[in-house]
Amino acid sequence: MNVELKAQTIASIEAELLIEILTPELLENHPHKHLCERAGFKAKQDTINAMHSHARLLVGVDELKPDLIRSAVAVAIKAIKNFGYKSAKIGSYGLENASAIVDGLILGQYSFNEYKSKHDEVLIKNIYISNEDIDDESLDYELLEQAIHNATIIANATNMSRDMVNTIPHDFTPSTFAYIAEELAQTHEDLECLVLDENALKDENMNAMLAVGRASVHKSRLIHLSYKPKKPQAVVSLVGKGLTYDSGGLSLKPSTSMVTMKMDKAGGCAVMGMMKAVSELNLDIEVHGFIGGVENMIGGDAYKPDDVLASRSTKTIEVRNTDAEGRLVLADVLDYAQEKVKADYIFDFATLTGACMVALGQYTTGVMGHSNKLKHQIFQASNDSGELVGTLPFNRHLKKLLKSDIADISNVASKPYGGAITAGLFLDNFINDDMKDKWLHFDIAGSAYTESAWDCYGYGATGSGVRLIMSWLQQNIEK
Ligand code: BES
Ligand code: ZN
Ligand code: ZN
User: Fold this and answer.
1) 30, 99, 290, 373: which is deepest, by most CB within 10 A?
2) Using CA atoms in the order 133, 135, 136, 139, what is the torsion angle rounded to 10 degrees?
3) Which one, of 324, 276, 336, lies nearest residue 470 by Cα?
4) For residue 410, what are the β-bridge partners?
5) Pairing relation of β-strands 221-227 and 235-246?
6) Protein residues whose CB sits closer than 6 Å to any atom of ligand 1
7) pLDDT digits (tens, 9 = 90+) for 402-461
8) How much distance in Å is there from the Cα of 350 to the middle of ligand 3?
9) Are 236 and 284 in contact (CB under 8 A)?
10) What is the C-alpha to C-alpha distance for residues 233 and 369, in angstroms, rounded to an integer?
11) Which ligand is nearest to the CA of 443?
12) Cα(470)–Cα(479) distance, rounded to whole angstroms?
């Protein structure tokens, strides 16, 4: 599906269908007001009225605001994508809503069909956006064009990340991360890719990461993708948890909790999407993506509760629960990333804890770190991108719960409350002192995957993190 801006009035664009976004107030003055009344359409949020004989699809919003428009446009495109219309047109609703319209279209039409023998084919091929605003004024073409161009790149990168997360664990192992990263570096000249296999990981003393993957027949991989423009404004490292499957290991998950654990690679997939977007947007920022690709399985060689691991940082970790594996992988990858790249910012993304969902609900990404300034910037990026975030506060009392009697630190806290925060605090132990204020941890356990549609997402992966961080990069560093 192709989304294209036209410097034309909405009426003069040739398309088979007009998509109209209406508030209840706008409906009052609509030429088809009476037909809508008869159909019981009141322009309530996310309701539609398909007027096929008038070649119009009306969709309701409570107000003309980006978050509401994104969701409504997604509902509209979901309703018509398989109908047989080849083209549709939509007006502009102010520059501030342009990227929300693109998100609604591209993220809303997404569905994952890889394993269905009959594909849910998207028949609609072209969507034209007019630069004519609802009050008949035409908006600045160049600004609108830029917004639509950028949003299209970011939404497509988000969908790539969703495809990866949705792929089943049989077809997506740590070496698949490496394969896709290498392919990305081939199609994007400005991306470089380095892959570390298990021998290289041993040479790097990444024993915590290696322990987690030891029982799997699919060997672990560390992927380092880099994007280095000539005179970058800043250097940013992005680190992703890439558990291609999390069975829990010997601390085996109950079977109902194991279903959906293909999503445990979502942090790594988000980083991959971010790298694709950074390159396609030609950002003036040096960006490094590090992904720890590992499968957490059981077996005769599995790492065990009671083991002590010597992490890359030399800190020793007592394993008390093999299902708290993501933090072990991230401990080593964060340490590696900090040594290899002197970054101005380092962010990590991980489906790290069920506790994050308990704390914030399943729609919201948990943000943790020491810098209030950075967290504030992320709130701004959340507003701009429409991705929901909530901060979870560190404190020294929770930090103490990670004490171990036999090693430097335990991989789980001694008390069950505040599990998302204690996981974040565990990672904090592997952040160097000079990086404390430059680091943020994003727990995407809830926001990365859904089993029922919400906002502009259908069943499966949401690609959470990609839009958020692209907004942050563009707002705070790109000038
Ligand atoms: N991958 C899980 C976290 C998770 C749970 C993500 C549900 C998405 C949905 C993680 O590796 C894990 O198992 N965490 C444990 C930590 C506990 C053992 C301290 C958890 O959340 O139960
Ligand atoms: Zn786990
Ligand atoms: Zn996990």
Assistant:
1) 290
2) -40
3) 276
4) 318
5) unpaired
6) 246, 264, 321, 323-326, 351-355, 412, 419, 445
7) 999 999 999 999 999 999 999 999 999 999 999 999 999 999 999 999 999 999 999 999
8) 8
9) no
10) 23
11) 1
12) 14
- Measured distance CA(402)–CA(411) in Å, rounded: 7
The pLDDT of residue 135 is: 78
CB atoms within 10 A of CB 127: 24
CA gyration radius for the chain?
23
Strands 365-369 and 389-391 come out as: parallel
CA dihedral 88, 94, 96, 99 (to 10 degrees): 10
Ligand 1 centre to CA of 309 (Å) is: 20
Q: How many CA atoms lie within 13 A of 75 on its CB side?
A: 23
Active site residues: 253, 327
DSSP H or E stretch at residue 348: strand 345-350
CA-closest residue to ligand 1 atom 17: 324
Q: 3-state DSSP: the chain helix, strand, coil percent, rounded to 5?
A: 40, 20, 40
Contact 97, 143 (CB under 8 A): no
Strand runs labelled E in 167-220: 191-196
Task: Quickly tell me which residue has 């445990």 as its tokens.
Answer: 264
Q: Which atom in ligand 1 lies closest to the alpha carbon of residue 351?
A: 6
d(Cα 70, Cα 452) in Å, to the nearest integer?
17
Residues 379 and 388: their CA atoms lie apart, in Å, by 9
Predicted local distance difference test score (pLDDT) of residue 478:
67
pLDDT for 20: 98
Contact 258, 365 (CB under 8 A): no
Pairing verdict, β 126-133 and 56-60: unpaired
Asked whether the CA dihedral 260, 265, 271, 277 is positive or negative, the reply is negative
DSSP characters for 377-391?
HHHHHHHHH---EEE
| Nearest-ligand number for the alpha carbon of 401 | 1
User: What stretches in the chain show pLDDT beneath 50?
Assistant: none
Tokens of 140: 């600045």
* Beta strand residue intervals within 351-450, DSSP E: 365-369, 389-391, 409-410, 439-443, 449-450
**How far is Cα 70 from Cα 88, in angstroms, rounded to an integer?**
17
Task: Indicate the helix (H) or strand (E) that contains 287.
Answer: strand 286-296
Residues whose Cβ atom is located within 5 A of ion ligand 3:
243, 246, 264, 326
Runs of H (alpha helix) within 295-418: 326-340, 354-360, 372-385, 396-400
Distance CA 13, CA 451 (A): 38
User: Which ligand 1 atom minimizes the distance to the CA of 411?
Assistant: 19
Residue 136 has a pLDDT of: 73
Ligand 3 centroid to residue 168 C-alpha, Å: 15
Q: What are phi and psi of 449, to 5 degrees?
A: -150, 145
d(CA 322, CA 320): 7
User: Coil, helix or strand for 30?
Assistant: coil
> 90, 462, 99, 153: which is closest to 281 by C-alpha?
153
Which residue's structure tokens are 């000079």? 434
